């Protein structure tokens, strides 16, 4: 057991999540699909004008990786779910920072694998240097992110920075402006080091090995950022909680007059209070799922337009399997005790949860079916309609399995297997495998 209490709490919470391993497997499948879809086109793109394109694409990949790390460090410092624990034990701020950083390294490992994997089809003499460059950007982005976001707490309360925040904040409270622009500042600080690192990578690949240390420049900047974070965390991490209370109070006062049904698909919940409640929870707590569903549907439609039926099938199939975990994610916002205290029966909750899950799932199906009809492929349209309806049926069964106490996890795994077999069978029926 770790001497860091926050790491121990995280480990115990992970052990109590039965769906942790299946969710991880789904994420790995998505990463593999993305890598296989991009690696070959990227290597072909580099065949002409190699030198310039290599540096440009590597810079963009590194910058995207740093941007993702900056956003994740924002969550760790500003919106971490365990900040309430820290509020009770402010003296343990440094162990808290270590636990959050370790959690981020583990959580962002798949992003790093994705960035590295899309370059895996290039020449093996290039790949070690590209791997070194991307790893340097990854670790550097984490270190700088924590330093900048803890610094943003100081900026939020500094009288000297108030005029700057007033110019930038727009409709936001000035304290929130400091948090909002912090990821951009982190990316900006890393930008120059990424230019040197990717340029050095290109030159080293061309034979100038004496420039190899410059590839690690983002890592060096990240180490400096991490040292700054260790200095800032004792006085400023607790103050961030106070600032968040002020920001949340400001927005809560503005939202008091908002209508309750102003959410995605609210027009489908007229006179359906339980459906509306879960739609609100989905939109406010898991909005990213809706955005991701439309993105997957749009990308699948693009593959169909490019006559790449295999990629469209793989993407839709992977999305359907991943979506079987959405009802459990959504139900976490309403634990059993809250459901009972509101007087909501299991049958009513199951029905509403099934309806909302299917409505969000259709965000994947609408772009795909529109593209199939537009292309004039009625046969494929019927097959995809059948597959989307099958996934909707499996979603209903997944919801029911979630309410089974003892064998619910085993039932859910069987539902996932049935869905996988359906999509494989459809691919064989179409003759693409």
Output the keywords:
mainly alpha; 433 residues; 2 domains
Please tell me about this protein's structure:
- By secondary structure, the protein is mainly α.
- It folds into 2 domains: 5-250, no CATH class; 268-430, no CATH class.
- Helices cover 79% and strands 0% of the residues.
- It is built from 19 helices and no strands.
- The longest helix has 39 residues, at 217-255.
- The chain is globular, with a radius of gyration of 24 Å.
- The two termini are 48 Å apart.
- The model is unreliable at 256-261 (pLDDT under 50).
- The helix fraction, in percent, is over 70%
Give start-end ranges of low-pLDDT stretches. 256-261
Tell me the major beta sheet.
none
Secondary structural class: mainly alpha
N- to C-terminal distance: 48 Å
**What's the mean pLDDT score?**
81
Percent of sequence in beta strands: under 5%
**Total number of domains:** 2
Q: How many strands?
A: 0
The best one-word shape is: globular
Instruction: Please write the string of helix (H) and strand (E) elements.
Output: HHHHHHHHHHHHHHHHHHH
Backbone CA Rg: 24 Å
The helix count comes to 19
């Amino acid at each position: 057991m770790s001497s860091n209490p926050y790491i121990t709490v995280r480990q115990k919470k992970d052990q109590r999540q039965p769906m942790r391993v299946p969710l991880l497997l789904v994420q790995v499948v998505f990463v593999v699909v993305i890598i296989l879809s991009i690696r070959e086109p990227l290597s072909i793109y580099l065949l002409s004008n190699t030198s310039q394109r290599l540096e440009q694409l590597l810079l963009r990949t590194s910058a995207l990786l740093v941007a993702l790390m900056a956003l994740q460090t924002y969550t760790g410092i500003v919106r971490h779910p365990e900040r309430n624990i820290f509020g009770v034990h402010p003296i343990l701020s440094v162990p808290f920072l270590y636990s959050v950083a370790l959690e981020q390294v583990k959580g962002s490992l798949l992003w790093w694998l994705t960035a590295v994997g899309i370059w895996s089809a290039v020449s093996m003499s290039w790949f070690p240097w590209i791997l070194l460059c991307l790893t340097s950007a990854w670790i550097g982005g984490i270190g700088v992110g924590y330093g900048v976001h803890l610094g943003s707490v100081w900026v939020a309360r500094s009288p000297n920075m108030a005029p700057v925040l007033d110019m930038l904040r727009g409709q936001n409270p000035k304290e929130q402006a400091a948090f909002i622009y912090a990821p951009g500042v982190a990316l900006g600080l890393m930008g120059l080091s990424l230019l040197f690192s990717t340029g050095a990578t290109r030159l080293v690949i061309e034979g100038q090995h004496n420039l190899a240390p410059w590839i690690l420049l983002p890592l060096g900047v990240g180490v400096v950022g991490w040292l700054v974070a260790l200095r800032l965390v004792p006085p400023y991490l607790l103050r961030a909680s106070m600032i968040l209370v002020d920001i949340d109070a400001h927005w809560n006062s503005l939202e008091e007059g908002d209508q309750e049904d102003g959410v995605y698909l609210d027009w489908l919940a007229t006179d359906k209070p339980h459906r509306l409640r879960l739609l609100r929870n989905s939109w406010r707590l898991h909005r990213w799922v809706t955005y991701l569903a439309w993105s997957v549907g749009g990308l699948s439609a693009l593959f169909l337009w490019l006559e790449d039926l295999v990629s469209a099938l793989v993407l839709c199939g992977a999305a359907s399997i991943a979506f079987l975990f959405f009802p459990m994610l959504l139900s976490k916002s309403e634990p059993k005790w809250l459901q009972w205290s509101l007087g909501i029966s299991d049958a009513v909750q199951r029905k509403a949860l099934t309806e909302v899950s299917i409505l969000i799932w259709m965000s994947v199906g609408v772009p795909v079916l529109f593209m199939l009809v537009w292309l004039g492929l009625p046969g494929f349209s019927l097959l995809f309609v059948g597959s989307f309806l099958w996934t909707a049926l499996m979603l209903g069964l997944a919801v029911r399995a979630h309410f089974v106490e003892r064998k619910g996890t085993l039932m859910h795994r069987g539902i996932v297997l049935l869905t996988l077999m359906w999509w494989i069978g459809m691919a064989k029926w179409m003759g693409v495998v």
